[in-house]
Automatic annotation (TrEMBL):
Name by which UniProt lists this protein: MBL fold metallo-hydrolase
SUPFAM superfamilies noted in UniProt: Metallo-hydrolase/oxidoreductase
Region of interest (Disordered), ranges: 315-357
Keywords: Membrane, Transmembrane, Transmembrane helix
Domain of life from the UniProt record: Bacteria
All copies of domain Metallo-beta-lactamase, residue ranges: 29-238
Biased composition (Basic residues): 321-330
Pfam families in alphabetical order: Lactamase_B
TM region positions: 295-313
Length: 357
């Protein structure tokens, strides 16, 4: 099968062409990518929202032939909307999943991500953020570390770059030959906080999704690194790909005006980042009080339910001891040994009631 020509499944345009041998697939509101080598072998970059396993498999079959398997799955980062099908697909295809070492705690059940900041952003996406799952998955049996030399397992002519900020172990992928950039959520090509922009697919360079970005200084440096690559094509996790001069102009503008246009005016992580290490979250700044009155009604109701559930859940003396700790925002630190803070086999079905204040 000729890998460079996209085939659309049953006449329905499920995948979209990004560049030669690169295709995107949108799952609800997040993109994942198929990247092929000249010899037809291929990798999957990210794995969509939960519930997209069949859709991804179908798109892979349409592109590369029935029963085709990738050489690897590569993760830009481990947010829930980029790893929805990763466990199923890694098992089914029996392939390794590559990620950056700093992303590992969130992929091996060791730590939850820093809590999202629902006080920032201006639209429905941010308001909904409190309901997003934050529990780490555990794909310990499949996970491998990206090689230190920048090469990309399973792909020729590509290299990976560490682009932290949105998450600590966030990476982007770059093909030097024609300057194609697959960049996860390091920046977006539409306004992720605006529900209207999400629906209308307007292409415009924006910062990373702010409700999930806990280190703005790092995010800024990362955008700078990507702009310095002078990309010809940029394919983001959110929004349609952008190309050429317009892409580079808007990207340069984003670098120049990052603290005005991308960083929220106020918010939990604006002045202080979440501190993480290779074991996960070490500390996070306190939540912003009385932030957005509009969300109080919804979030308040959810918080009440959450509080009731967490009261019910506070059986262990361990937890009450933690509440009295002098490090109220450091409860996720692993003091000694590598004990998971979350038992992935006994996930709280009310996933938004996690340990964070
Ligand atoms: Zn993300
Ligand atoms: Zn995302």
């Amino acid at each position: 099968m000729e890998a460079s020509k996209p085939k659309y499944y049953a006449g329905k345009r499920e995948t979209f062409a990004v560049a030669p041998r690169v295709w995107g697939l949108k799952t609800i509101f997040v993109n994942l990518f198929f990247i092929a080598n000249p010899d037809g072998s291929w990798v999957l970059v990210d794995a969509g929202v939960p519930g997209s396993t069949a859709k991804i498999r179908r798109a892979a079959d349409a592109l590369f032939g029935d029963e085709s398997r990738p050489k690897a799955i590569l993760l830009t980062h481990g947010h829930f909307d980029h790893i929805g099908a990763v466990k199923d697909l890694a098992q089914e295809w029996d392939v390794p999943v590559y990620a950056h070492p700093m992303e590992l705690p969130y992929l091996t059940g060791l730590s939850s991500y820093p809590p999202p900041d629902s006080s920032v952003g201006g639209g429905g996406m941010a308001y909904m953020a409190f309901a997003y799952p934050k529990k780490p998955i555990n794909i310990r049996n499949h996970i491998e570390l990206l090689p230190g030399d920048g090469s990309v397992p399973g792909l020729e002519g590509w290299r990976w770059l560490h682009t932290p900020g949105h998450t600590a172990g966030h990476v982007s992928f770059f093909r030097e030959e024609d300057r194609v950039l697959v960049l996860g959520d390091a920046f977006t090509t539409r306004d992720a906080e605006s529900a209207i922009a999400v629906m209308t697919e307007k292409r415009e360079v924006h910062g990373p999704p702010s409700y999930f970005t806990p280190d703005w200084a790092a995010a800024h440096r990362s955008v700078e690194i990507l702009a310095d690559l002078n990309p010809e094509v940029a394919a983001s996790g959110h929004g349609m790909p952008m190309v050429g001069h317009e892409l580079r102009r808007q990207l340069d503008d984003l670098v120049k005006n990052f603290w005005v246009v991308a960083v929220p005016n106020k918010g939990r992580y604006v002045h202080e980042p979440a501190i993480t290490d290779e074991r996960g979250v070490v500390s996070v700044p306190p939540p912003v009080g009385n932030s957005v009155p509009k969300i109080v009604a919804i979030a308040g109701a959810v918080a009440l339910v959450g509080m009731a559930l967490s009261v019910l859940g506070k059986r262990s003396s361990d937890k009450s001891a933690r509440r009295k700790s002098k490090r109220p925002y450091s409860h996720n630190r692993v003091a000694s040994g590598l004990h998971p803070t979350v038992d992935p086999d006994h996930d709280d079905p009310n996933g938004h009631t996690n340990n964070y204040p």
